Amino acid sequence: MSQTYDSQSFRDDSGLPSNWRNEANCKGLNPELFHPVRGKDSRQALAVCAGCIVVNECLHYALSNSIKVGIYGGKSERQRRVLRRDK
After folding, report:
1. Domain range summary for the chain, segments of one domain joined by +
2. Which of 51, 67, 74, 77 could form a disulfide with 62 if both were Cys (CB 3.0 to 4.6 A apart)?
3. Which residues, 6 or more positions from 33, have their beta carbon under 8 angstroms from its beta carbon?
């Protein structure tokens, strides 16, 4: 895994234009922040997402690509699982 999030680190099958990632608050941050060890606090990652202008695009990306691990679009793994199930 790369040391920081960048535009090239995302595989994208969502159909969204790829430039949304350039506006993400997580760009340049350590990915480990968004992939906490099970049972560890994810509030810091969620705070980064809370102020992000592309949080909806990120969530769409995670759901479209069936990403099951980590914080994406301001949602935890469990929260995304519920969204997928309710679809």
Report:
1. 7-86
2. 67
3. 26, 44, 45, 48
Rounded to whole angstroms, the Cα distance separating 27 from 49 reads 11
Write the DSSP string, 44-59: HHHHHHHT-TTHHHHH
* CA–CA distance, 70 with 15 (Å, rounded to integer): 21
What is the Cα–Cα distance from 43 to 66, expressed in whole angstroms?
Answer: 23
Question: Do residues 4 and 31 make contact, with C-beta atoms less than 8 angstroms apart?
Answer: yes
Q: Which two tokens stand for residue 87?
A: 């679809």
CB count within 10 Å of CB 86 equals 6
Tens digits of per-residue pLDDT, 28-86?
999 999 998 887 888 999 999 999 999 999 999 999 998 989 999 999 999 999 998 87
Question: Which tokens go with 18?
Answer: 């790829």
